[in-house]
Amino acid sequence: MADEVVLLDFWASMFGMRVRIALAEKGIKYEYKEQDVFNKGPQLLQTNPIHKKVPVLIHNGKPVCESLIIVQYIDEVWKDKSPLLPSDPYQRAHAKFWADFVDKKVYEVSKRVWTSTKGEEREAAKKDYFETFKILEGELGDKPYFGGETFGFVDLSLIPFYSWFYAIETFGEFNVEAECPKIIAWAKRCLHKEIVAKTLQDEKKVYEFVGQLRKLQGLLE
Amino acid sequence: MADEVVLLDFWPSMFGMRVRIALAEKGIKYEYKDEDLRNKSPLLLEMNPIHKKIPVLIHNGKPMCESLIIVQYIDEVWKDRCPLLPIDPYQRAHSRFWADFVDKKVTEVLLKMGTTKGEEKEAGKKEFFEIFMILEGELGDKPYFGGETFGFVDLSLIPYYSWFYAIETLGELNIEAECPKIVAWAKRCLQKETVAKTLPDQKKVYEYVEQMRKRFGNG
């Protein structure tokens, strides 16, 4: 029986992009179902009743939620090709730690920048944003990827945020490359991978979307 | 070469308790070092420079941080006995989801209840019960979240039980009245020697919380 794989997702979601990259890395055929996150459909609410969020992977009718959990599931089920996590337990724990850091910190500091109003709030948000990325640059070091010589779990968890950089830089009025050149160099290296280049969303399109979100939240300018 | 295992921890930490239960389940000998969180040791700051938090497991000199990541590491390294996670990938994903739910929701609501007053605190209490109702729904009629045996989700949640007396007394609520299944499940877990020996006395936790509240002026 052929595998039936469905992904409930939203085009601009960094979390969804992680799953799309993982599925592409493994060469898995799947049905992509775009969700209206402002008007959630019954399938999303039924398959993720707890958090009601994208992405949701539905494999042979069974739903898996939370992007990093989904990616680990994909890596375990389709284990014969393109491993996403290292096989050594210590390296695995290290990769999970940094992906967890991205989850806990990067989304939050990014959101604070694009939802902030001018002045002190924005300056504080920008400071935290750069501190977070400086820590990531420290972890990257001189390696081509967080995973070492090859693109791995941590790279996959972080690279989708690159498609949001233009929006964050424009609304935050700053330049990421000036402060964190290593991160930009790393991101451009990742974009040489066809899978990443095809998955990441156009940054201008994301910028327009963030503009809409800001309007909805009553943030003008 | 014998394994050298060190755990940097703090006795009332639910996160630390998870790791202690996992180590006990696997029968791993380790050195326990209790940290003074107001005066963190150079070893802790060196081993966890990013978050500066306990627990930290140091295995043959290599540190691991974040309790659920540590527990999964323990399960993978000492895989010959007492599996903590299921073997089936879907069941593993399901366990990780619920442990993640506990991590995200339970800690956050406890913090809310402990640090707010008035309407905000009442909202926190309501949310606390909503979260535990969801957990009761997931538990269903199973003896453990893991099914017939104590597993990853049980391990991630049971440490909070040692805080229930403090939560009930300071929050003025009765958990057993609202969530009898959870309390029944907790008592079932406490019949396991590894859990009973790991969880600190509830009154001792209450005294610790009272001290914290006085120190931070919430009393």
UniProtKB/TrEMBL annotation, chain A:
Its EC number is 2.5.1.18. One of its GO terms (biological process) is glutathione metabolic process. Its main location: cytoplasm. One of its GO terms (molecular function) is glutathione transferase activity. CDD domains: GST_C_Tau (cd03185), GST_N_Tau (cd03058). It is found in: Cytoplasm, Cytosol. Belongs to the GST superfamily. This is Glutathione S-transferase. It comes from Quercus rubra.
From TrEMBL, chain B:
GO terms for biological process: glutathione metabolic process. It comes from the Eukaryota. GO terms for molecular function: glutathione transferase activity. Residues 3-82 form the GST N-terminal domain. Keywords: Cytoplasm, Transferase. It is found in: Cytoplasm, Cytosol. Pfam families: GST_C_2, GST_N. Residues 88-216 form the GST C-terminal domain. It catalyses: RX + glutathione = an S-substituted glutathione + a halide anion + H(+). One of its GO terms (cellular component) is cytosol. Its EC number is 2.5.1.18. The keyword Cell membrane does not apply. Is involved in the conjugation of reduced glutathione to a wide number of exogenous and endogenous hydrophobic electrophiles. Belongs to the GST superfamily. PANTHER family: GLUTATHIONE S-TRANSFERASE U26 (PTHR11260:SF773), GLUTATHIONE S-TRANSFERASE, GST, SUPERFAMILY, GST DOMAIN CONTAINING (PTHR11260). This is Glutathione S-transferase. It comes from Quercus rubra (Northern red oak).
